[in-house]
Amino acid sequence: MLGLLLAASLVFTGCSANNISDTSKPDEQQVSDDQPVDPFRLPEPVEVKVIKSVLPDLNMEAGETIEDNAYTKYVFERTNIKTKVMWYASSTDYDQKMQLAIASNDIPDMMVVDEKTFRAMAASNQLEDLTKVYEKYVTPEIKKFYQATDNKVIDSATYGGKLLAIPSVGIQADAPSMLWVRQDWLDKLGLQPPKNIGELRGMLKAFVEQDPDGNGSADTIGLTGNNVNLSAQGGGLHDFKGIFIAFKSYPLTWVKDEAGNTVYGSTMPETKEALAVIRDMYKEGLIDKEFALRKSPEELVASGKAGAFFGPWWTPWALTGSVKNDPKADWKAYMVADKQGEYNIALLPAAQSYLVVKKGFKHPEAAIVYANMYDQVSHTPNEKEKELIVGHSLWPLTIITDYPNAATIKHELLVDALAGKVDPDTLDGEMQLVYKQALKDKENPRANADDWAAPHAYLEGAGVLKLEMNATDPVFNTSTKTMERRWANLQKLENETFYKIVLGSLELNAFDKFVEDWKAEGGTTIIKEIDEEILK
User: Fold this and answer.
1) In the chain, helix, strand, coil percent, each to 5?
2) Residues with Cβ < 8 Å from 27, sequence gap 6 or more?
3) Per-position DSSP letters for 154-220, written without gaps between them
4) CB neighbours (10 Å) of residue 141?
């Protein structure tokens, strides 16, 4: 899943399409410089091909499909954008299929990608220039959120002097990797939440050996993993980022070492330390033995076979399957401290993801209109009591426009509203819905997983954000010439080496050889280019 999962209510406050005079066919529409526009609605229907990443346990109402549902119908009614799904997949299947589609240039009209993919597509001339339509259509509110990042998000979406994407704001709440644990399992086994790596290992051993689900069989696992990456730069699910940062290791991130030199976090000595621990945990059976092959670790959690994994503050949205299957599943979030008892994070890039448009698509303005609509849905009070969830898999595309510290702000608002310190009617559309859900869940805890998820994310997950954390600021977040040519190979080298070390097919000292090869195959040149870029 890309991007931040949020909950919101809808409001129908868009301007009427009758104010726009345009009798041309949809495929003949043109945007002139002096033509007045409705930023929330195209003058005529436009079909937009998309691809979709969906959760494995996605719930749909009777008669709904991935392409035809309450969300896509609302988008069409609101914007005149008719989305057609080229294909959809879940978890790692989606990532692999998307990369194959990009490589063969069989891409949709609009799609959401990460920064690495955005840069690669921009370098391959696969993206449409959005500079003019952005200035013509974008709302002042979206500009306000972008300005809160000192317009760094716009800079990151600009390539060769052209705006080639509509960026999602990187919510810094995604930086911490939290350990999500079934508190009911801890309570059953008489355990305290783990504070450090040693206590984490003890807890996982108990989860594997002491039958926490009480079914009389040794069929529970310790920690889940995924078969795509061992760590994530942003808010990843089912990776081991929480272990890496406990060693002050920051894979996939450009930082300064103690001597002030630019280094790639994946090549740091601290990363070798973290890999050694993960390797030992896997050997001891504390990590899912099949994690490197398993396509959907979510199924382990939903079925009640796993009671611990790492994820960001918004993880409860990915836990609805667990709660629906077992309302006793009481998930709590914790941070794992380093040897000094401190918590560490690496701050995220200003932009979280990028909404891009296929080169040659006749209606690039559709991307900005869609972004305007999605932003308004997130922030406008609910006037007609029609409630949909922002971030739900059934939205055709997800783009997050908000303040970088939005999760913390909303956590405090929700806490104060529940305590009677803030009038709920003054909350925006999203938080009004979350407040109502929180009241329902308080009455009957976890009886309705959908009512539980959003309040739990804001109260529990975002509540952890109040902990004091050592924040490392990345020194570089974009790309260099050598990265554009060599990065795919370097990433492959890193991923294969790290997985083989953890799984035991390579010795731990293979890490040293990886660092040497990484430098020789372009890493040293890339660092030089980054230093030159920083000095500009």
Assistant:
1) 45, 15, 45
2) 362
3) HHHTEETTEE--EEEE--GGGSS-EEEEEHHHHHHHT-PPP-SHHHHHHHHHHHHHS-TT-SSSS--
4) 15
Q: Per-residue pLDDT for the chain (536 aa), expressed as one digit of tens each?
A: 333 333 332 222 333 333 333 333 334 344 455 678 999 999 999 999 999 998 777 878 899 999 999 999 999 999 999 999 999 998 668 988 999 999 999 999 999 998 889 988 998 999 999 999 999 999 999 999 999 999 999 999 999 999 999 999 988 899 999 999 999 999 999 999 999 999 999 999 999 999 999 999 999 999 999 998 999 877 789 999 999 999 999 999 999 999 999 999 999 999 999 999 999 999 999 999 999 999 899 999 999 999 999 999 999 999 999 999 999 999 999 999 999 999 999 998 889 899 999 999 999 999 999 999 999 888 876 544 456 777 788 999 999 899 888 899 999 999 999 999 999 988 887 888 899 999 999 999 999 999 999 999 999 999 999 999 999 989 998 778 899 889 989 999 999 999 999 999 999 999 999 999 999 999 999 999 999 988 86
Q: Do the beta carbons of residue 252 and residue 328 sit within 8 Å?
A: no
Tell me the C-alpha distance between 417 and 24, whole Å: 50
pTM across the whole model: 0.75
Tokens of 377: 């849905």
Identical fold, 17-170+351-379 and 178-346+472-476? yes
Q: How far apart are CA 98 and CA 56, in angstroms?
A: 17
> Sheet harboring 110-113: ordered strands across?
110-113, 351-357, 166-169
Q: Please state the φ and ψ torsions of residue 96, each to the nearest 5 degrees.
A: -65, -45
Query: Do the beta carbons of residue 176 and residue 346 sit within 8 Å?
Result: no
Per DSSP, the three-state class of 306 is strand
Amino acid at 272: K
Alpha-carbon span 251 to 229, nearest angstrom = 10
| DSSP-H helix ranges across 227-325 | 241-245, 269-283, 298-302, 320-325
Both tokens of 504, joined, read 């035991």
Q: List the chain domain ranges.
A: 17-170+351-379, 178-346+472-476
Query: Which 3 state secondary structure label does DSSP give 28?
Result: helix
Q: Does domain 17-170+351-379 have CATH number 2.40.30.170?
A: no
Strand 343-346 to strand 469-472: parallel, antiparallel, or no bridges (unpaired)? parallel
Q: In which residue are the tokens 């796993």 written?
A: 306
Q: Which CATH architecture has domain 178-346+472-476?
A: 3-Layer(aba) Sandwich (3.40)
Measured distance CA(38)–CA(136) in Å, rounded: 10
| Phi, psi values for residue 267, rounded to 5° | -100, 5
